[in-house]
Amino acid sequence: MAKGPEKNTKNKALHTKLLNRKKAKLQEEKKEKVLRLKALVTKMNQQKNENDSEKE
Where would one find coiled-coil regions in this protein (predicted)? Predict the structure, then answer.
């Protein structure tokens, strides 16, 4: 039986590596965004509490 052409596993491995890197980067950005939002919310809540205590 004749075998087909050899598979190009080198490019496939590089492609997988790049995709994994991209996924990791996106996950990291997502985590950073969540942390920034949490920090912003806590800051706004502190300001709100300070304003409420000043009014009383």
Answer: 12-43
CB pairs under 8 A, 24+ apart, for 43-51? none
Q: And the tokens for 41?
A: 């919310």
1-49 pLDDT, tens digit per residue, is 567 777 788 898 899 999 999 999 999 999 999 999 999 999 999 999 9
- Give the separation between CA 20 and CA 50, rounded to whole angstroms: 45
Give residue for tokens 């990791």. Answer: 24
DSSP assignment of 33-52 equals HHHHHHHHHHHHHHHHHHHH
Dist. CA 43–CA 35, nearest whole Å: 12
DSSP 6: P
